[in-house]
Amino acid sequence: PLTIYFKERKEEVHNMRYPLTTMVTSRGCPGNCIYCAVKTIWGRSWRGRSPENVVNEIEHLVKDFGVREIHFLDDSLSVNKERLEKICDEIIRRKIDIKWATPNGIALWLLDKPLLFKMKQAGCYRVTFGLESGNRDTLKIIGKNYSYDWALEIIKYCHSIGLWTVGTFIIGFPEEKINSINDTINFALKSELDLAIFYSATPFPGTPLYDYFVAKGLIYNDRASQFVGGCDTKYFRAEELAKIREKAYSLFLLSRLKRPWRYLQKIKTLEDLLYLTNLIKIFGKWFMANLKPKHFSTAVFTTKN
Asked: Is 292:182 a contact under the CB 8 Å cutoff?
C-alpha cells in the first residue's frame, strides 16, 4: 500500500507537498562522467517513455492515490528537450495540480529559459544541477563540459521566476589539489544557488574513476565499506576531505542566512511561504548544530607524504 511510503516521505520536510512519490520516465545517460556508475547499469543509450505515457501515470497517481508531489528520478531527464516540453504541455493542458522536482539532477547545459519557464508553469518548483566542480581543469578531467557563465545565468534566471535551485559538487578526485577545491567552494558561493551539496569523490567499481584510483595505488580492493565517506587521494586523507566539506557547508549556509531577503522574490503563494519557513527551520538548526570556530578560520590541511 502506498500509504506506507507516504508515511515515510512525510518526514522529508524539505519538500513542498504531501503525499509524495517518485517516478522514472527514462533510462540511460549519454554523458561520460568518470565517476558515474549509471552506465554500468543502464548503459549510455538514452530511451524515454512518451509524454502521453508519462502524464497518464502522473494523472493516475493524482486521481487514484491522492499524490500531490512527484520526484523524477531520471538520470538525464532533459536529454530530449522536445519530450520534456511536451510533458509540461500535457500537464498544463490536463490542468493537473501537481508539484515536482528533479532530485537526481538535471543537465543545466541542455536547458533554456523558455523550457524552464514552462517547467515552472507545469508545477516544477525545485531543480537540482550536477555542477560538480568550479575548476575548469578538473571539470575537463571528470568529463563535464558546460560554460560557467551559462550556468550562472541559468541559475539566476531560475531564481527570478521562483524556481528553487540545488547544486551538487564533488571534491577529492585522485590528484585534485586545494586550489581546485577552493574554486569549487567559491563557485558555489558566487552563484545564486539556494543550496549546495558537497560530496567526496567515490570510486564505484566499474567506473573510470575506480580504475584510476586502482592504477594510482589509492585503493586495493572493492570492499564497499572503504568507500563510505570518500577515499584517500594523492594529496588528502578521507578525514581531511570530510573536514573541508563541513567547512564548505558552513560557509555556504552562512552566506545564505546573511541574505534572507533574497528568498522573498520566490514567495508568490501561501504555499511558497510555508515552504520557505520549513527550509529556514531545517537549515537554521543544521547550521547551529555544526557551528564551530574552526569552520571559519583559514584552513590549513596537511598532505600525505
From this structure: no
